[in-house]
Design a protein that fits this description.
With about 160 residues, the protein is an alpha+beta fold. The chain contains six helices and ten strands.
Amino acid sequence: MRKNILIFLLVSCFTTKAQLKELKLNTYTFPEIEQLQRQKPKPIVVFIYTNWCKICFGMKKTTFNNKEIINLLNNHFYFVKLDGEDKNDIKLLNKEFSYKPTGSKTGIHELAKELAYIDGKVSFPTTTFLNSNFEIEAQLDSYIASKKMKLILEKIRNHKN
C-alpha cells in the first residue's frame, strides 16, 4: 500500500510539473522583425534599457515577467530589447546604426538614441511602440507597471484591428 502511495505521489509531481510549462517572452532582433513583417505585419514594442539601470531591471523582472503581458506581446506584437549602450552595429531599413562614444567610458547606441529621444533627451528605460512600418506611434520614458502596460498593449491591439 505504501509503495502504491509513493508511486502515485511521484507520478503526480511529475505530471503537475509538466503542466506548469514556463511561459517565455518571445524576443526578436531588428533584422528578424524586418523579415517577419513581410510575412505577418504586427506592431513592435522596443524596450530600451541599460545594464546599470535599476528601474530597467525592475521592469524586466516584473512587467515583462507578467503572464498577461507575455501573452499579449507574444500573440499580437514583436518585442525587442535594445541595450542603449550596445556596441554592436544594427542594420535596420537599409541603414547602419552603431555605438557612439560620448566620453572615455560612456556612449549611446544610435538606434537607442533614435527610438528613446523624448523632449531633447534620452532616458532609461524607454518603451517605444512602432507600427508595422517602423514608425514611432508612442514613447514612454519611465517604469511601466504591468497593469498600465496591459492597458497600453490592448489599446494598440484594438486600434490596429
